[in-house]
Design brief:
Blueprint: E1 2-4, E2 10-12, H1 14-21, E3 25-30, E4 35-37, E5 45-51, E6 54-59, E7 65-71, E8 76-77, E9 91-94, E10 98-104, H2 105-114, H3 116-141, H4 144-156, E11 168-169, H5 174-181, H6 185-197, E12 201-204, E13 207-210, H7 215-218
Antiparallel strand pairs: 1-2, 3-10, 4-9, 5-8, 5-10, 6-7, 6-9, 11-13, 12-13
Length: 221
């Protein structure tokens, strides 16, 4: 059930996994730009891409659409139902002519319970894919200037040193941060507001609170 991945790493062979378990499934072909499922549909099955590509997107309550992931052959999607999601949180659209295996949620749960070794491999595969998607999302959310500011704040708070980090920084002027990362004070102010909105930093009477979640901005470059 394993194959060699990039740089000699071992990757999960999802096709072999499906073939060996005898899971009931059907192959469905989708045309370019055809809807596979929509946000809000019942999450009663998961999908495995045999050929082609799939875009996952989501629309917020304000009507803004965001691309969540771009997937290709060898990727699963729509697996949220296995974790208890009764409805789809994203919309899946075929990017090109695409062939997918459609596997019922109940059938997949039966296979995962019966085949423990294969279940472990499947879980490891999904975790590694989610790490990749998280990295892609961070790339979309934060540019190099934002990472530079996050890194500067963490260094000022002494993260990564043997000393206990200073969670509360004295007030740091946008002008001084701007000189550190090579941008304008106005840009610094906008980014700090974004970090505060996302919960990475917060205002305290003594200064600025640096939350450990800010590390997520710089851990993926």
């Amino acid at each position: 059930m394993e194959r060699k991945g990039p740089a000699g790493t071992v990757a999960f062979d999802a096709q072999a996994f499906l073939d060996s378990t005898g899971a009931a499934r059907e192959v469905v072909a989708f045309r370019r730009s055809e809807l596979i499922f929509a946000q809000g549909d019942a999450g009663d099955s998961l999908f495995y891409i045999q050929a082609g590509g799939v875009k996952l997107s989501a629309v917020s309550t304000s009507g803004r659409e965001a691309v969540v992931a771009m997937l290709g052959p060898g990727d699963f999607f729509g697996e949220g139902g296995l974790a208890g999601q009764s409805v789809r949180r994203t919309t899946a659209t075929a990017l090109t002519p695409t062939d997918v295996l459609v596997i019922g949620k109940v059938e997949m749960m039966r296979v995962l319970r019966a085949e423990h070794a294969l279940s472990d491999r499947f879980i490891a595969y999904m975790l590694s894919r989610n790490i990749r998607l998280e990295g892609d999302l961070l790339d979309q959310l934060f540019d190099s200037t934002e990472r530079g500011i996050a890194r500067a704040l963490l260094l000022l708070a002494r993260y990564g040193t043997k000393d206990k980090p200073d969670r509360i920084l004295p007030l740091v002027s946008p002008a001084s941060l701007a000189r550190t990362v090579g941008t304008t004070p106005a840009r610094i102010s906008v980014i700090l507001k974004k970090f505060a909105r996302l919960g990475f930093i917060g205002d305290e009477p003594a200064g600025t609170r640096i939350n450990t979640s800010l590390l997520s901005v710089v851990l993926h470059d």
